[in-house]
Amino acid sequence: MIRWTVVLAGILGFVGVLLGAFGAHGLPDRLAAQGFGEVEVAKKVDQLEIGVRYQMFHVLAILAIGLLGGKASSKKRRLATGFFLAGSALFSGGLYSMAMLDVMGHWAIVPLGGLCFMIGWVIVVMLGTDMRPKITGSEAS
After folding, report:
1. End-to-end CA distance of the chain
2. How many CB atoms are located within 10 Å of the residue 106 CB?
3. Taking the domains of the chain in order of start, what are their residue ranges?
């Protein structure tokens, strides 16, 4: 059985490290060559770093959800993972596009991604409350 959430976490983690390395080693020179000044370059590198940071935090959350296995509601695990994935795409992806492409498709994409992250965390709280051991009649006495 493939634990798709663990595979997803691995892929997103790899991409996060790759983008972080690019942001540290390739992006500043690329932006300077495009005519951006030092202040603009620093701002864009910071945007990329924030996107990577949030993506990597949520990679760890997705990995933890994947490792829960049958110990928690599969529907809630899928929902939380989906919201974390959407948050990574919208929040981090929006910051990546602003930093690397100087493009922002729609002004609400980054905050919408943040909202997806928050919803995912609320579902994680719900997962935590679902994991309490069930007491049967014989155990209660």
Report:
1. 39
2. 9
3. 4-128
